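Sequence only, no structure available. Ideas?
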Amino acid sequence: MVLAGVVGAIGNWFLLEALKCGELSVLGPINSYKSIVSVIFAFLLLGEIPSLVQFFGILLIIFGSYFVFESGGEKFTFKIFLRRDIKFRLLALVFTALEAVFIKKIILMSDILTSFVLWCFFSALFSFVILVILRSKIVLNFFVSAKSHAASFLTLCMCMFLMQFSTNIVFEKMNVSCALALFQLSSLLSVLFGWRYFNERNLKRKILGAMIMIAGSAAVILL
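Reply:
I predicted one. Tokens follow.
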């Protein structure tokens, strides 16, 4: 659980850094790469063996990302993975995919409720440690922001609760790689929300890329 808390806190920090400098409609579909990472970690740590169909799904995910990346107006090259927002997003999904494997192991050793409570405690603990290391004015910033944006904070907390608790339920029933692949349906929502709330462009190409990546994720689900 300590390991889950550490990698989860680091992963969420990288995610926030990526969102600070990148587009939601690009960073959202990139999350489909988590299916690839989870297949590797689940095989190494849990003994979950991927099938040929899952490898085909991985190729579709990579192909779909080509359309998402090029929608930003620049040609796709491997150098794009060194772009600040893309680099942080990839690091985030690596750490959160590893967190998912640890959570799955904890669920197997205990139960859904125990794993959820422990996740809440250790995630908060190590997130605080990261803020201290970064010398963030955590107390002042928290109270100022909470007072000014109370509704947004409460909504975020509720979304995190529903997301993680429902995720633990799914982890109890499915392999980690399959569960994380199923969650990639959110890629389309990320594209639409980025267009609707942040005026991000090239909607059609991003939707095409996201749908291809979702098809790849669906293939990863099939055993």
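The chain has a mean pLDDT of 79.
Hope that gets you unstuck.
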